# Entry
Amino acid sequence: MTTESDLSYPAHWEADVVLRDGGTARIRPITTDDAGRLVSFYEQVSDESKYYRFFAPYPKLSDRDVRRFTHHDYVDRVGLAATIGGEFIGTVRYDRIGPDGRPASTPADEAEVAFLVQDAHQGRGVASALLEHIGAVARERGIRRFAAEVLPANTKMIKVFTDAGYQQKRSFEDGSVHLTLDLEPTAESLAVQRAREQRAEARSVQRLLAPGSVAVIGVSRSGAGVGAAVLRNLRDTGFHGHLYAVNEAVDADLLEGVRAYRSLADVGAPVDLAVIAVPARRVPDVVAACGDHGVQGLVVLSAGYGESGPAGQARQRDLLRQVRSYGMRLIGPNAFGVINTAPDVELNASLAPSPTTERGRIGLFTQSGAIGIALLSGLLRRGAGLSSFVSAGNRADVSGNDILQYWYDDEATDVALMYLETLGNPRKFTRLARRTAAVKPVVVARGGRHTPAGHVVPGTRLPDATVSALLGQAGVIRVDTVTELVDVGLLLAGQPLPAGPRVAILGNSESLGVLTYDACLTEGLRPLAPLDLTTAASPEDFRAALAGALASPDSDAVVVTAIPWVREQELADDLAGALREAVAEWPGKPVAVVHVELGALADALSTTSRPPAPASTPATSSPDAPAEPEAAPPAAEGARPPVPAGGGEGEEKASAAGAARQGRIPAYPAAERAVKAIAEAVRYAQWRQANADAGQVPQFEDIDEAGAAAQLAELLTGAAHDTVLTLAEADARALLARYGIRVPTTLPAPSADAAARAAGILGYPVALKTTAPHLRHRADLGGVRLDLTTEAELRRTYEELTELLGKPQELLPVVQAMVPRGVDTVVRSVIDPAAGAVLSFGLAGVPSELLGDTAHRLVPATDRDVYGLIRSIRAAPLLFGWRGSDPVDTPALEELLLRVSRLVDDHPEVVGVSLEPVVVATEGLSVLSATIRVTRPPARSDLGPRTLPSY
# Structure
């Protein structure tokens, strides 16, 4: 909190965090108003914890102590508190010290740090979270090291320090352990932070999806309304925990057959999850009751929040602030609900009727309730089952990022399907998606690509194709429609990943086979010639042909096409069984079926019944039985094994999914849809193989990160938070130099004499260029003259230039030393509202500006990323010796891209970098012009300490 006297109060240090057990706490600076809270907190700490903090019995804080611990300058003395319900549960403070260990001020860069956590909250990760945040505060204030004195018996606190991942020194002095921590983030400290984040956020979602008890608040006595609907679904699903109904006017012991109460306080037992279905005006009172009762999480179905305009958005912020003040998590508001089909939970706290869902291996997340209904219906209709479902509504708190954290190590989920209207924290989403995609497919359909006026979903400045490419870089399978989301999800959940792009096609219609063949070519696959079984083909013919295709070393996937027989229903079950036989006999390759007006076949294939015994080993013999077909050829020795769709952990996860997958073959009513699903599976499998080694972000020894941070801080002193500054040429050159990027000096030439003097300083040959905005980077307009070797030639060219294009004050001419000839390229980086930091590359001029031939990668880029980046543009052959030209120095170009990526990644203040042109020669390169845009950094970023999105 801030007061009028706290003019320097650093509000941007406030943050909500998820603790180890999945609960939340708020971390904020301690102020002068916190004296009473501090005293109350201290009274609840055990004598042992007090002894560990002060190295002596210390039963009570003196008035002097209270003043010292609540009065800070937020520079040399800082205190932070972790709070729940407004009350302290833990504190941390640092005091800047000098080399002699006594109090000091800037430029001293060391501080003494100390923690105290209430005993009831120890073991929840409070101290670890406080260490992350006080460390970030210290770095912001120029402190580079923490010193701490800890008693040897205080093993918990020693573990907090040693497990943080920072470089540290440890010694034993005067009966205590002396620890020194270097606060510079390391790969290890970042890995520790993100592992803790994953465990905590996954646990918080688990508490919502696997509660031991649920209360539905707002159940009408008439049985109408959403509250009663959710209660019935929970009851009918067979929820394994305790279930309660709450209605303030209830006059019976039961509602919908469930024990009913007038208030939550009357329940008299713990409640883990509360489903709130009351009007928005009553929600604050209900949330307060839930917080007082110790509820862990809320699903708010009530509408009237962010979707209803500015007043609703303010109401939504107040709701989230209230929920988090009690340490709870929130799904919604305006949510559709949650489902967990785990056999020991069986939770359906949603508006989807119980028969709508079956147990399966697909996890589903949507922001839209309407889209959620459509997806649930589509999956059920086609025989797919769910592991879990979350419809987050307005996504005020729990988002797709949280669900990805949960699905990452959820053994019940093999495929993650997501309908997203925004990416929330885009840097975090792409990081989490990339990690999750390494073990299981993540399929995303995005709404909100074209943002209507006044809509709350932020748009993107990037073309849709670029957004798709960036998501693809993170391993996300991007689809355009909810129909494609179901199509791709069905294939991935029911079939193994293909080992390559070769597709065998077989069926009883030549025309449908040709359509499938063409669709494969459109998707970039390599189809084999279709095998026409003719319209007289029997189920046995299909079985033999499919077995042969699956056994062949020449195919990686199979598409079976089928048109109706005269007796469709009688043969559908036989054909489905025949196809299952072949798949059971030759597993390992994905199979998709294209049917035309064969709904009965699709229904038969969607079941998970076990296939009958293979025809080659019949259980009984009959004189009328068809002759056995010839055995299919064995798979080629050394053929590449299939990749399981459900996890890079390999065979364990694949076998875990086996029971759910056995006998289910996805069927599609159009060839294009089946082929699209296979193509996405092929591309994903290729990404998995290519990203087995994700690459490295090089640590260049010559980068001066601290110097760059200091320069940016100085340049932005006094700048408003929403102001974007374009750096002066000298400042841009200096900042780039700190990252090992050299930009040749450019001297202004307001007159011919000035141009001659500049050339004398730089040395001939030189270039004379105009820098006026309408001529910048437009060599085609004659504003760039190269290889001027003498003063006379320079003066003559200067005169020609001004006569042709305008006066010097209009042209803003400059002189620059010549650099080796090469290929002109463009390197850029921008911060996009929906995609995060993006690194872009293309050739200068027509290829990138007119044809849009530009490639993009997410920041931070690895060495593998930039290697692929420069090779992914259509004009890339010009860099590699096209038509006998000399290949240019692409390793130097890759290094430049990595350095720009590091600059943007290290400093969130940098929101735009444009290097144009970058002339790449046969040896080395030259950055001839640079533009850098900066702004004050956001209060929190994905690079900082763990924090939930702010309200």
The two ends are 15 Å apart (CA to CA). The longest strand covers residues 87-97. Confidence is low (pLDDT under 50) at residues 1-7, 451-457, 609-644, 647-662.
